[in-house]
Amino acid sequence: MDAIxxxxxxxxxxxxxxxxxxxxxxxxxxxxxxxxxxGGWLSEPEMAxxxxxxxxxxxxxxxxxxxxxxxAGRRDLTLLARAAAAAGGGCAGAVEAWQLAAQPPRDEVLxxxxxxxxxxxxxxxxxxxxxxxxxxxxxxxQQERRLVExxxxxxxxxxxxxxxxxxxxELRSAFERFGFGVHFPENFCLxxxxxxRKPDGGGLRYLAQAAGASHVLMVGDNVDDFRSVENARQIxxxxxxxxxxxxxxxxxxxxxxxxSELGVEAVAPSASELLKWLRGA
Length: 281
Known about the structure:
By secondary structure, the chain is α/β, with parallel strands linked by helices. The chain has helices at residues 22-34, 36-39, 44-52, 59-71, 77-86, 90-98, 106-118, 123-127, 150-154, 168-178, 201-211, 223-235, 255-262, 271-279; strands spanning 6-9, 16-17, 145-146, 159-163, 189-190, 215-220, 240-246, 266-268.
């Protein structure tokens, strides 16, 4: 690994624990549309199963599919996840596999999710949209906690970048809360509202070019993180792209099993442990 000259991090589940923010926002969004009785059934294992299907890098898509399945009278999201994976993953795969009616529309689900996550006072700043929920919300982003200390990133003696599904507004909130911004200039940060979205390998190629790197290590906790590396290898064979999967995170207790099925060669129990290894500590 001495030849690695750029480490690209995912954020959620790698640098930041989002179980009480994004995951909770997904459950609250389902409850907003279906009522508290039906909202609470969306569990961590079910969300992890959908993420393992691929194409569910955004929690609002998890919420949307959960709402559509429940509206259709079908609650087995683990079964839906397998069907969605066979149909290409993501919302489109789920809708095709079970012939779901995408109602309410994804845009309405996204609007509610964003306000629940950001809070009524910050939703305009974070997303550029006005609050619409009848009851003012406190932002769940404030419930996040760091998984890596700032000094651990400082001690890593190679270039660092981010490739995340977060929007720029969401990323800035994490920088504000945890002080990560000093390590990741915005021109080395690819966000979900930018020109590249995982699993587009072009994002990793862009970051490698920007850093002048020849050997890139992507650190992620989700299927789409790994697929970004696979796709980068296809479009940019002049560089080396490797992946390290972080256990837990988006895939929960299934992470080891999913990474093994994908053929991931390197896994770590946490980003902190990986950073120690990269530093030779």
